[in-house]
Design brief:
Chain lengths: 434, 434
Amino acid sequence: MNILINNGIILPMNASNEEQPYFKGYVGIEGERIAFVSSDPEKAKAFYLSHDNCLRMDASDKIVMPGLINTHTHVAMALLRGISDDVPLMEWLEQHIWPIEGKMGYQEVYDGARLGILEMLMGGTTTFVDMYPYEEAVAEAAESAGIRALVSPCPMDFRMEHFENDWRQVQKRFSDSRLVKMWMGPHAIYTLSGEHLQRSISLSKELGVGSHVHLAETQTEQNNCMAQHGMSPTEYLEKEGLFSTKTLAAHCVVMSDHDIEILARNGVSVAHNPQSNMKLASGIAPIKKMLDAGVNVSIGTDGASSNNDLDMWEEMRTASLLQKVSTLDPCAIPAYTALKMATVNGAKAIGREGELGVLAEGAFADILLVDIEKPHLYPHTNLISELVYSTHASDVDTVIVNGRIVVKERNCLSMNAQEVCATAQKHIDTLMSK
Amino acid sequence: MNILINNGIILPMNASNEEQPYFKGYVGIEGERIAFVSSDPEKAKAFYLSHDNCLRMDASDKIVMPGLINTHTHVAMALLRGISDDVPLMEWLEQHIWPIEGKMGYQEVYDGARLGILEMLMGGTTTFVDMYPYEEAVAEAAESAGIRALVSPCPMDFRMEHFENDWRQVQKRFSDSRLVKMWMGPHAIYTLSGEHLQRSISLSKELGVGSHVHLAETQTEQNNCMAQHGMSPTEYLEKEGLFSTKTLAAHCVVMSDHDIEILARNGVSVAHNPQSNMKLASGIAPIKKMLDAGVNVSIGTDGASSNNDLDMWEEMRTASLLQKVSTLDPCAIPAYTALKMATVNGAKAIGREGELGVLAEGAFADILLVDIEKPHLYPHTNLISELVYSTHASDVDTVIVNGRIVVKERNCLSMNAQEVCATAQKHIDTLMSK
């Protein structure tokens, strides 16, 4: 299908660090890609007339912008939202999360992922990066819901066999997918022996895919790594050669200047998860320092059980506010930088620079229409500030992924919301009564 | 009018620190007060049958809870949302905020307040505490919109005359109001000479009203006070006798243990403004310490130009998450405590304990219906966690203030939203082009 987005406020975004202007204009979509972005009504008219079967979508009073890219989540954990909060990390994992996760199979992961994907689509996330057992189920849920996913089956010491099976299944079913891609997901240094880490690295190289890893999330991880290897987790992973694969590292909370220099030198991208790091009391990642050092920093929500939502707007806002207060610098992470982290930098983090995270000719048509006719967004003086500091997920009116309209006027067209919610409820009730 | 709220999930809240259970039940409203709260359908039926002109409001799948109390804002600053962000504090004030504020008169404050009030009502705030020039305009806006307001005309050195005029005007027009009450608003130690502070204190005592003050917001305030008076702002205000009036102190970021002890000993309540403190890079208020010391801590949004919204749900969430990460304790400010800060503690802060912030027989009927049939709120396992960690302002379905339905199914009945937004836009366009 072809779509003409008509008369919107276009915020194209691009790789430059300079704030790009928004303007009244038009976006043409041809199949799965953007055909043009322009302020010229004649160009829009010509596009409309020259394309059969072209839907004209009115975008007056709406911001037209790239879809948001959530670079670190465990989407199926939406199923576990609220089952445990406000307790110490190990109690949270050992007494609440792991026992329930141990009972989750393919179907629970699939339906949990559907719930998380529904929430993400309704809030304007068009791509997510995932790591969890049964990534085949996550890939299946993403494909059927029409959201873009980078799934990373995760090697962990106690489930290497399961991991390889998961990998083969996803590869078999989704190698031709337009939406699902695969990376390796070496879980973390504390769940993966040197031998298994090497296996993950060599598989990444053999298959030509990147690595998605948890890194330096807590002081405990840092302390244990120092005790075991005499170096920081970042130093250890560099020594082991992980960064010779394209790497996306989630969290990066406990980081020395040397660690940051290592990330910058190796072109490692970071997925910053401020709300999860706050809720689990892990600490505050030195994001401003990383950006200043030239590290590509993107934004993730982490799983919904440590957040407790998958809302990239709040995450952008928190990323900005938390750096300001932790560096005592009100200029840290200005609004445009936060917006770039959630779009352009996210695309770069997963090797899709120029293809995703921007509105540009030739890029994939992952596009949001944000309704700014809301009291909490008035008056309109600076739309970038508005998007980052005041916009809510519920202000997203329409969502297009890969040229397909998946949310229209706040209704999800690709999923039955009521059924997705009810199914999730049934699963968690059963899991908790077992 | 009488209202029977039927078949909801009732979250009554009360002054206890123990988490109170929610239950399926009913709330009866007689005029402006709550007549009963019960799980007994027979009681509901009897209430309905014994009251003429009784509206039955279906609350299935909705949480029925007390309205939120925003204990520190400058509501008319909604007009200035987004005009300046991401700049140092003094540049923000001197080059952006003050020049525009200097051009604002009664009408601009009135229409700015209407915009902020609209946003607050739509998001479930039923009471706010304000401080600004032209509090008469704020009071008028609150009264006509049907929201409860505690306005505090503010003595400042350069406008004592204006303050006294403002005070008399509000008193004259709103002394019989069911919604508007008045306090003294001694602005801050750095805008008020000792003499004028004394005048504010004696007026408070003479009129039998409390004091709403900015306190210890920044390190600069602390340093200057140490240089000038050889003591902290809190020590200085205690010495000057302010705390002999019922006091609500906003911010309280830079606080020693001794300062906290002073607040506790004098029964001073705190309005915590986490997002504003983050955005302006003021610092992190030691809220957990204050609560542990027995200080009554409530929550405020501050003005929309340093936040940039008036969303108490985000503020609750941020209050909890920010304490967890700053104390490195995931148990700090659990969900129920945050909820209590935004309701019960808010009521106590303004001397309305038991009357506001709770659902209880005899309390004023300030009530929210929160729609939990949303993907981001599924599955339902712990509704307290859901309210604090996942609920958005846009999940508020219905709002009752003083027994009057002001928001119904996400429509504001007491204001014309479109007109309020358009008027605000016109003002800011004019102010910025002057």
